[in-house]
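Team,

Forwarding the record for the chain on the shared tracking sheet. I've put the sequence and predicted structure together so nobody has to dig through attachments.
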Amino acid sequence: MSQEVLPPLARYAPYRRAGDLVYLAGIIAVDTVAGRTVSGYADIPADARAALGETGEMSVDSKDGPIAAQSWFIMEQLQRVLEEAGGTMADVVNLTQYFIDLRDFPIYNRIRATYFPNPPASTVVRVAELLPTPESLLEVQAVAYIPERRG
C-alpha cells in the first residue's frame, strides 16, 4: 500500500478547498492502485493489525477484522488527504460516516478515537449499499478548517 493519497474510484477530486474550508470526498477502504477492497486484517500492515486487536482466532478475527481493517485504512487515508491539503486530523470539524451495519460502529468508534482525541462534530448514517463492492462496510466524509496560507 502506498503512503500517498490513492487516486479516486472515478472522476472526482479527493478534496476541494472553499476558502478556509476543505471538503473531503467520501473515503472507503479500497486500494485503487491494487484494485482491491480491504476485507480484513490480512490486508493491512502487521503493526496495525496488532494495534487494532487481531487475536489470531478465526472466530473472532473474521467478525471484527473487516470493520477494524476498513476503519484503520480509511483513517490513514483521511490523514494523508488532509496532509496533502495542508492540514492535520486536528483540523477536521465535521465527519459524516456511512455504515452498512450500525453494529460495526463500536469498533469503528474505538479506532476513530485514536485519530481524534478531540472529536469533531459527527453524523452516522445507515445505508443499503456502498461502492464499489459488497465488501465495503464504511465510508467517511470530512470537512476541515485549514486557513489558506497567505504571503
